[in-house]
Design brief:
single chain; alpha/beta; Metallo-beta-lactamase, Chain A; five-stranded mixed beta sheet; 8 helices
């Protein structure tokens, strides 16, 4: 019994100092700020995603920088509070603003930005819209300088060494977006999935439903001690905790596909598909109809 209690205590994240940014340490050298499951708005200023950093013996890798420039600075201060080692890498897991708007805080000599090979194009295509809407939608001021494209591109997979700590970065085909990247820390057996995993927050499709399901099928067969989602609590029971997301995505696939085969139109799908899941997810009303629309467009012309 005492042994089980000790194991549970080890799994519970330690609360560490973050100078204004709440930081947890779920494993040695891994630090996470957990965002709230909210819509980005002028109250939270887009600071809604899980962000953090991993510390090696030589340097630090930042994983996503936050939803506004001030959060990026707060994350930088949290790093400086918890280690004297320099930041050597900033990893952007995908293009969405809640993960990249803090980039400028880390722009300095010796820091390399890393992203999916398709991230530069996504930033270029969306950048002006993001900048134009930041004040209206988030109540923040950003410019093109805040959207920093990667210096190092990941096409398939890549290892980076923080000094006695190797991280494996993996790029995927279209799923949540067309530029998703995960980070695997071998030392702690932790997978940082970012927005390929949503817990409690409704999954949001901005890429490919079928691609996303294919990725989950592959990752489901791996064993991880910890999995860090892009939104929601940390996962210690992989792959069990992933099943609600997979079931929701599979429901979209089967129900929308069935309507299309019947010759039904998008309007019918939006009004009927998946509403029984409403009580199971936060932000369902904000994202579900959009998901159905995206999935309908993807499946409408499949063979």
């Amino acid at each position: 019994m005492k042994f089980l209690i000790m194991v549970c205590l080890i799994l519970v994240s330690q609360i560490v100092t973050g100078q204004g940014l709440s930081i947890q340490q779920p494993a040695p050298g891994i630090y996470v700020h957990f965002g709230e499951n909210e819509m980005p708005d002028t109250v939270n200023h887009g600071a809604i995603a899980n962000i953090g950093f991993i510390v090696g013996n030589r340097c630090v890798a930042v994983i996503d920088t936050g939803g506004n420039p001030e959060q990026g600075l707060a994350l930088k201060h949290a790093i400086e509070t918890n280690t004297t080692l320099p930041v050597c890498y900033v990893i952007n897991t995908h293009v969405h603003p809640d993960h990249i708007y803090g980039n400028l805080a880390f722009k300095s000599a010796g820091v390399k930005f890393i992203g999916h090979e398709k991230l530069p194009r996504a930033m270029a295509v969306r950048g002006s819209y993001y900048v134009d809407k930041a004040l209206e939608q988030l109540g923040i001021h950003v410019t093109a300088d805040n959207i920093i494209p990667p210096d190092i591109l990941v096409k398939d997979s890549m290892d980076i060494d923080l000094g006695g700590r190797v991280l494996t970065l993996t790029a995927y085909t279209a799923a949540h977006t067309d530029n998703d990247l995960t980070v695997f820390d071998r030392q702690s057996n932790t997978l940082w999935m970012a927005d390929l995993l949503f817990i409690d927050h409704l999954p949001v499709i901005d890429g490919s439903l079928k691609g996303w399901l294919g990725i989950l099928d592959k990752l489901e067969h791996h064993s991880y001690k910890l999995v860090i989602p892009g939104h929601g609590r940390i996962v210690t029971n992989w792959p069990v905790a992933m099943q609600p997301e997979k079931e929701y995505l599979m429901m979209l696939l089967s129900d929308v596909r069935a309507l299309i085969k019947k010759g039904e139109h998008l309007e019918k799908a939006v009004e009927t598909v998946g509403h029984s899941a409403q009580g199971k997810w936060k932000l369902f009303d904000q994202f579900h109809r959009r998901n159905v629309t995206t999935v309908f467009a993807e499946l409408e012309w499949e063979d």
